[in-house]
Specification:
Elements (H helix, E strand, L loop, with lengths): L5 E6 L2 H9 L8 E4 L6 E4 L1 H5 L8 H10 L3 E4 L2 H15 L5 E6 L2 E5 L7 H19 L3 E6 L2 H13 L4 E3 L3 H9 L11 H9 L5 H6 L2 H7 L3 H10 L27 E12 L2 H21 L2 E11 L11 E12 L2 H15 L6 E13 L16 H17 L31 H7 L1
Parallel strand pairs: 2-4, 7-8
Antiparallel strand pairs: 1-6, 1-7, 2-3, 5-6, 9-12, 10-11, 10-12
The chain binds a DNA duplex (18 and 18 nucleotides) through helix 3, helix 8 and strand 9.
Pfam families: DUF4113 (PF13438), IMS (PF00817), IMS_C (PF11799)
Family: Belongs to the DNA polymerase type-Y family.
Protein name: Y-family DNA polymerase
Length: about 450
DNA sequence: TCTGGGGTCCTAGGACCC
DNA sequence: TCTGGGGTCCTAGGACCC
């Protein structure tokens, strides 16, 4: 029998699990990982969850409690997590014809057209999970079902049961799974929609699926609602976007069709001076430019954003943006930095304390294939400049992110840099660290 | 003192064009 | 009383995801 099936493999408490691979003394003990700038909790071990620590809680609020409960705290270390993620995907790709990397800790596998019996597929899921665990030290849960949305749902259920692999193979199994799932836990239904649905008496995914499709479309944003309804009924209608292997060390949404690249950061302490803000923005512009080159893209639009304290009451919007149009799409660090600094000068108001800044590149096209500017007959970049960027990326890749940078960017540990007081060493990627290990 | 960051898709409305 | 209609591009805003 041919089964039309997708699997969703999700790494358990991924950032915590990554830290534990290199600090095994924390297995079985409470651990949390903080967001950038040590702002809030973004990953918790099961033990920390039991203690009552919540996702997204501000660190400064729960810090005394964490210390009291002897919870181990890590600052986030995306270089490490990105590398571990790549290892997991590498293993997964041995088990399916297609892999779609959905986020840093999740991937869909394409099991369509597999000429197998259901019990074999269940065992196959268990094998691949075992193999990921042995090869990387990362624990996972696996959901297998006829649509991506149902695979997500099965994955959620797998987390709660003894066997971490859950397969939905019949109408009855799907129906039972829908009945066990609260409507707010369905993929694609966030807090707003969940509340709206509960007000209508829709409590579970089964309640939602039992409504007519037209009703669901009316309440859940039109076409999106329609797709969701059909996916819950076992009709696949989300696209399959197989991923190429990517070299990225951050959160990423892989695939060819990306529309923007951004880098924004909160400051360690508020900044007023144009000089310090320029350093920050130049540094962020360089980071976006690197990402652009890594993806083989060039950008037409540079958006700079400057943010004040989001949590302070006030009438003024907390974030303002300035858009700079480039006549020719580019991925050249100096050109993008110049544009970003121009945007910054437009935005900057003397005497205002800024808490965060960012650079967003959009209007993307494949590098080197852009239209030549007919009036100036300029190619996007002179060859020497291209070569310089290639060398720059290679050096920074090999010896660490800030080895070579423009003079406009900052020196080490500037005042605007975020806090990361509890970061683990870059076990897998840092050149100096590898050197010490020898 | 201290509250993350990077993405996606969809819709509505205005400007502009023929 | 009539004061077109359809297509496209852009932006802003709302919803969602991890």
């Amino acid at each position: 029998m041919t089964l039309t099936m997708y699997a969703l493999v999700d790494c358990n408490n991924f950032y915590v699990s990554c830290e534990r691979v290199f600090a095994p003394q924390w297995q079985g003990r409470p651990v949390v990982v903080l967001s950038n700038n040590d702002g809030c909790l973004i990953s918790r071990s099961d033990e920390a969850k039991v203690l009552g620590f919540k996702m997204g809680e501000p660190y400064h609020q729960v810090r005394p409690l964490l210390e009291l409960s002897q919870v181990k705290v890590f600052s986030s270390n995306y270089a490490l997590y990105g590398d571990m993620s790549r290892r997991v995907v590498q293993v997964l790709s041995e088990f399916a014809a297609g892999v779609e990397v959905y986020s840093i800790d999740e991937a869909f596998l394409d099991f369509r057209g597999m000429n197998w019996l259901a019990p074999d597929l269940q065992r196959y899921g268990e094998q691949l999970r075992e193999r990921v665990w042995r090869a990387t030290g990362i624990p996972t849960c696996v959901g297998i079902a006829p649509t991506k949305t149902l695979a997500k749902l099965a994955n959620r259920l797998a987390r709660k049961q003894l066997n971490p692999v859950k397969m939905l193979n019949s109408k009855a199994e799907c129906q039972a799974a829908l009945a066990q799932t609260l409507v707010g836990d369905v993929w694609g239904i966030g807090r707003r929609y969940a509340r709206k649905l509960r007000e209508q008496g829709i409590m579970t995914a089964a309640d939602l699926a039992a409504q007519p499709e037209s009703w669901v479309r009316r309440y859940l944003g039109g076409v999106v609602g329609g797709r969701l309804w059909r996916e819950l009924h076992g009709q696949p209608c989300l696209e399959w976007n197989p991923s190429e292997h990517e070299d990225d060390d951050e959160h990423l949404t892989p695939g060819i069709g990306r529309h923007s690249v951004t880098h924004t950061r909160s400051f360690g302490c508020p900044q007023q001076e144009l000089a310090a803000l320029s350093e920050a923005v130049a540094t962020f512009a360089a980071r976006t430019a690197e990402k652009l080159r890594r993806h083989g893209l060039a950008a037409h639009l540079v958006t700079v954003l400057l943010g004040t304290d989001r949590y302070a009451p006030g009438i003024e919007p907390a974030t303002r943006t300035a858009v700079v149009h480039l006549p020719i799409a580019t991925h050249d660090t100096p050109l993008l930095t110049q544009a970003a600094l121009r945007g910054l000068r437009q935005l900057h108001r003397p005497g205002v304390a800024y808490h965060r800044a960012g650079v967003l590149l959009s209007g993307l096209e494949t590098a080197g294939q852009g239209q030549l500017d007919l009036f100036t007959s300029l190619a996007p970049l002179p060859p020497a400049r291209l070569q310089l960027m290639t060398v720059l990326d290679r050096l920074n890749n090999q010896f660490g992110r800030h080895t070579v940078r423009l003079a406009a960017a900052a020196g080490p540990n500037p005042g605007w840099a975020g806090r990361r007081a509890y970061q683990s060493p870059a076990y897998t990627t840092d050149w100096e660290n590898l050197w010490q290990l020898k």
